[in-house]
Design brief:
By secondary structure, this protein is α+β, with helices and mostly antiparallel strands. It contains 3 helices and 17 strands. It has one domain. The strands form 2 sheets. It has a 15-stranded antiparallel beta sheet that branches. It has a two-stranded antiparallel sheet with strand order 9-10. α1 runs antiparallel to α3. It is globular.
């Protein structure tokens, strides 16, 4: 005797599963941080699902005899769990420098141009991070083979439970020069990397590059290495400003919720197959 199934009940379960998934998606807060410059108590703009600004306090940390810069953030402009009280997200941006990187490109990008033929093998010499005005530099300039490294550490939501903060990645920086020469930077390590040229100031949107078919996109660790144009050695008087990165805060579904969702999806699949038979 064939089994009889309550299809309205099955439909209800499918809808309940869809509501569960939608709720999980909605329980996210996307935060975009832009305009981080090399200055103590720098004002950083918060966008995405957040708003306003946050002040980044800068400290110098000695690491094996060289100086890294640490920027400490404490953002309390969003209510992550919907209890009508804003929560606090804290983290640090670390900037370090090294020299001796091997850098090249198969094809020169040309004035204000770009391509994806760069390659970088990181050097092993650690240097001091320096600043020229509000620009990040390696000690005093960005000579060929100098690399700046940007990372985010110590993401924390404090006492808030049931939620986690995740770094999407770095997605923007600006090359700013002060000597009227053409300068080039390569993003990342390895081969097939994005290389850009500028002789004024240029904002690089890494996620925009990916959308155009490149190999860049979000960078969990951002490496920016200076490359001299093939036309000759020029003073590399440029630096990095306007750093941007994105963080997502999301609820952590309980294991029982995943089991319920799996059961709903499995039952729905069986019902659909039997209906088709």
């Amino acid at each position: 005797m064939p089994h009889k199934y309550n299809y309205p009940l099955v439909n209800t379960l499918v809808i309940a599963g869809a509501v569960f998934i939608a709720g999980a998606v909605q329980a996210q807060t996307f935060l975009s941080f832009t305009d981080l410059d090399n200055a103590n108590n720098d004002t950083v703009t918060v966008g995405g699902d957040g708003s306003g600004t946050v002040t980044a306090g800068r400290t110098v940390q000695d690491v094996s005899g060289t100086n890294d810069y640490l920027f400490s953030f404490s953002y309390n402009g969003s209510d992550f769990n919907g209890d009508s009280t804003n929560d606090t997200l804290t983290f640090k941006v670390r900037v370090s420098a090294q020299s001796g990187s091997t850098v090249s490109s198969v094809t020169e990008p040309g004035p204000e141009g770009q391509n994806y033929t760069g390659s970088v093998t990181l050097g092993s010499t650690q240097d001091d991070v320096g600043n020229d005005g509000t620009k990040f530099v390696n000690e005093t300039i960005m000579a060929a083979g100098d690399t700046l490294v940007f990372t985010i550490e110590d993401l924390s939501l404090g006492a808030l439970t049931g939620y986690q903060a995740t770094l999407n990645g770095f997605d923007q920086f600006s090359m700013v020069e002060w000597d009227g020469n053409s300068h080039q930077s390569v993003v990342g390590t390895g081969t097939g990397l994005f290389v850009a040229d500028t002789n004024l100031a240029r904002t690089i949107s890494l996620t925009g590059i990916a959308a155009e078919g490149g190999d860049t996109g979000y960078q969990s660790t951002l490496y920016i290495t200076a490359k001299n144009p093939d036309s000759g050695t020029r003073p590399q008087r440029w630096g990095v400003e306007d750093l941007g990165f994105d963080i997502t805060v999301a609820a952590i579904p309980e294991s029982s919720s995943y089991a319920l969702l799996a059961g709903l999806l499995g039952l729905s699949y069986v019902m659909i197959r039997r209906r088709q038979a």
